[in-house]
Write a structure and sequence with these properties.
about 290 residues, alpha+beta, five-stranded antiparallel sheet
């Protein structure tokens, strides 16, 4: 019988999530998520994807307001958010399946992650600043692990004057929401402006304090917030009930899983669907899904 006298040289199998982090070269992003509570992946989406997503958001805004704002020159009243975007255009299905975003979100949320909502925070000059807050639901103190997380895609060059994201690094460790006195991004001295080029992804822990600056120049800042949660958290949008077979056929089994298609709770007189249950539990132990 032999023993290894150098235990630090022992190797262990990598879990799928870390294998994916390694394959995509995201190790430094994981370190930033742990230390700062957020990380940036610059210019993750291409110009064609952004243009199609912008057009789809503007389509919804036109339905809601009766007019279509010019992204460069608009200087009118505040504009509403655009919700339920997964069903607005197929481009949002493609964005949901982005492998870099999913690797980082799976690191934060585990294998049971599901999409909660897909929203565009539309910021025109008349929109006030968005106060600092956390996305984590429930009572304080928060759990240290992320039970929800956000990937904020910039559909404009993010600058402070354009109304970019405001974050306080390290606040994911505080376990609480900011007080009203701490909540103004324009006066809190610890706030940083997350200034990134169009198409960049900003991924952050659900406990991290974040908001948005007031836009100071004409035009409209669009983004895409892909909000995800662990499977036991109530989702914001009715995605599970509205996903079509065609959407699943286009995108595959992981898309179905992200859209809660294999969850088995919520049954009626007939009881739970155990075949569905087996498919859900299988994902948690199948190494293909990390």
């Amino acid at each position: 019988m032999t023993t290894n006298d150098k235990p630090w040289e022992r190797t262990f199998p990598r879990t799928e999530v870390f294998a994916e982090i390694d394959r995509l070269g995201l190790q430094s992003n994981v370190i930033e998520l742990e230390s700062e509570g957020y990380t940036v992946v610059p210019s993750l989406l291409g110009a064609d994807t952004i243009a199609r997503a912008q057009a789809a958001i503007l389509n919804q805004l036109e339905r809601k307001t009766g007019s279509r704002p010019n992204l460069k020159t608009y200087d009118g009243p505040r504009l509403p958010l655009a919700h339920f975007l997964l069903f607005e255009d197929e481009v949002f299905e493609q964005i949901l399946m982005n492998e870099v975003m999913l690797a980082l979100m799976t690191y934060l949320l585990g294998q049971s992650l599901t999409i909660s909502s897909m929203t565009s925070h539309v910021r025109a000059p008349d929109n006030p600043h968005l106060p600092l807050h956390c996305d984590t639901p429930g009572l304080t103190p928060f759990r240290s692990e992320s039970i929800v997380a956000n990937c904020n895609f910039a559909f404009d060059d993010y600058t402070k004057e354009n109304g970019c994201l405001a974050i306080i690094p390290g606040t994911h460790r505080l376990g609480r929401n900011p007080t009203p006195d701490e909540g103004n991004p324009h006066t809190n001295p610890f706030v940083i402006s997350v200034e990134v080029p169009i198409g960049s992804a900003i991924v952050y822990h659900g406990n991290t304090w974040h908001g948005a600056f007031k836009r100071e120049v004409p035009g409209v800042r669009l983004n895409l917030a892909v909000f995800m949660a662990r499977n036991y958290i109530t989702r914001q949008e009715r995605i599970k009930e509205n996903v079509t077979p065609e959407m699943i056929e286009r995108n595959g089994e992981r898309f179905a899983r992200l859209c809660s298609q294999f969850e088995f709770n919520g049954y009626e007189e007939d009881g739970p669907d155990f075949a569905r249950a087996a498919k859900f539990v299988g994902a948690l132990i199948d190494p293909r899904f990390g």
